Amino acid sequence: MTRKTRRLWIVIACLACVGSAAALTLRAFSSNIVFFMAPSQVKANPPSPDRTIRLGGMVMAGSLHRINENGTPVNAFEVTDGQAAVEVHYTGILPDLFREGQSVVALGTVQKDGGFTASEVLAKHDETYMPKEVADELKRTGKWDPRFGKAPDASSWDTMTAKKAGG
Amino acid sequence: MFGPEQGHFALALACVLALVQFAVPLWGASRRDARLVGLAPYLAVSQLIALGYSFLCLVMCAVSDDFSVQNVAANSAVSKPLLYKITGVWGNHEGSVLLWTLILAVCGGAVSLFGRNLPDILRGRVLAILGGVSAGFQMFCLLTSDPFDRVFPAPMDGQGMNPLLQDPGLAFHPPILYTGYVGFAVPFAFAVAALIEGRVDAAWGRWVRPWAVAAWCFLTCGIALGSWWSYYVLGWGGYWFWDPVENASLIPWLTGTALVHSAIVVEKREGLKIWTVLLAIATFSFSLSGTFLVRSGILNSVHAFANDPARGVFILALLAIVIGGSLTLFAWRAPSLTSTGLFSPVSREGSLVLNNILLCSICAVVVTGTMYPPFMQLLAGRTISVGKPFFDAATIPLTLPLLLAMGVGTALPWKRAQLARTFSHLYAAAGIAAIGLVLCFWKLSGILPIACGALAVWVIAASVSDVLRRIGIGHTSVQGVWERMKNLPRSSWGAALAHIGAGITILGLCGMSQAEHAIVEVHIGETRSLAGDDWTLLDVHDYIGPNYKAMQADIAIRHNGKLVTILHPEKRDFTTQSQTTTEVAIHTNFITDLYGVIGDRHGTGQDTTYVLRLHRNPLAPWMWLGGLVMAIGGAFSLSDRRMRIGAPKRASARNMARA
Q: Which Gene Ontology cellular component terms are annotated (chain B) (predicted)?
């Protein structure tokens, strides 16, 4: 085996592996990328029910209630970004850090009736922290400008929204 | 004696020593001045002593509750147990950077002590590179994240630590993981030194490999420990979430695994030299970017450093110098390295090349998946995320040929192999793998888990049969087998063990893909069944812990009416931090984990119900057990005489004396 043929073999193996890696990556990207959406974006152009998205916003104060579906507990709450609110259904135990009036990110699909069924709810934050996506959304909707001090207190901000949404 | 000022001074002293350690040996080596080069080990050891003292000072500050130190005030509290006061030192940004540089200094010290048989010039250059990296990060520590900053006025008590982090698993996870990350600095330094020298030979491969293997063992342990922690602490029933922090440790592990294998080719056959040097540089570069970019939040969000832009800019500059510098040197000098060993594609070398290509392809996929969301955020302004479905779909198909090649590779001879002959050694293993395939069809569902499971059995069977063949089972007498067992190099035993460990981990992952869970809401005394087991909620009671209130459940699990175990999952409420944590209860028989979590309480009186999450996780412990076996395999091959630096020299000296 000469140096040239050996090199040829290595190049072929490299191309095959890198090619299949690229093909797999692209295929996986096309079906598995998860977009982040705020409730107002969901209301404006709802994604198709087979598309998984991440929905982020504030849990509307006083909206959490429980439904029992055949012995399985379902948590229902509304997530808002100050413009619109989406009803979220989640089967399972809400994370330890889940609070009404605080930010939350839910992974799931939008149903035909406009509700959101979550397969996972994330609330990895403490009293002061909010997920970056939610903070960005707040800035985008003009609820908070970082140039003028800290983010508004989550609970007060949210009751304000709740009233606005109600009225 | 151990105040923060002394610690600060010692850190500054270590930084100066590291700078000298960088400059003097390099200058000496270029002038061929043996005295200057000979200074390097002394400088490395004194830098280690100064840094060790500095670290000790920080530990003493935390232990003695010196809340005038900003770092201690922000992360410790009087009521914290002593163990967590000590381990809490590296549970925050400043302390972990200090620990990082300390481990780097320990590596330098180890090269000085164990590298006595290296040529002086090479050792000097290796230590100089390590010193340079050290100096950079100590400067980062001193200028932007000083762990010894004082605060005035000093608070009466510290702010305490996240209760989630008060866990022995997490306490020892960072040092082990960091040792893995930082350990790859030594192969990196060897690679840069070889590029400066313009020479890579079999001896270089022999010197580099033990360091790479040692770092790889630590990284393997660190990843397994981190995954185990998230399994039993976070209570989601998952073990790997493919989030950027986890991927940051997996990426250098993949290239590090490739490095450990390609260095064998350099050592035995003087081939793949340029590639091995590149892998050494890439692995350490990934370690560096992993620890610093991801952990400090640059990757997650480019704006996370907004409150302290100096830190982000400094770290980016440092990464650019280390990674850019070494790659430039590589581009300049690599063409002068030529390989001599010729081999056919079907040979041990060929299979190692295939292993490297596949590992690097998997690595490229993981890098793409990790980097794509932040780049999309930056360029297109769209927030997206990729998760488990993406990584599963893209990496598992690439793992299958890797597993297949793992079994064949060790059976192939060097240089040129005859396929028919090799396959005749593998009949038994293939038979066992076929049985495994049938078992997998019976037990598992889904094409990928079945294929992975059968291939994992194949890897284990092929590794065992390879060892059996080498020690001559069935060919020679019992005495002959014993003799051969003693003569079989430990690195062969280690390789077999590591491959078996990989097989065990893959089997564990396949088992976990079949995990079942149920979320139920029950009254006390009610029974629900999950996958053949009956789970009964016997009782729930409240109690008061040292700094929390807890709700504890008693859940009895019966299989066909026979009591298996009683689980006691808890929910703890830490009032001072206003945080709740979930204490998972796990019953394991090393085949199946029964995993119970208690959620919220609803209603009052007779109508009180509790939400429970019940998991049945087949083969879960095997995932971490396999990691441990892999690391033990690595450690075993480290104990091989041939791997110990300088051993060949001694052996040849003895042979000469005998002659």
A: plasma membrane
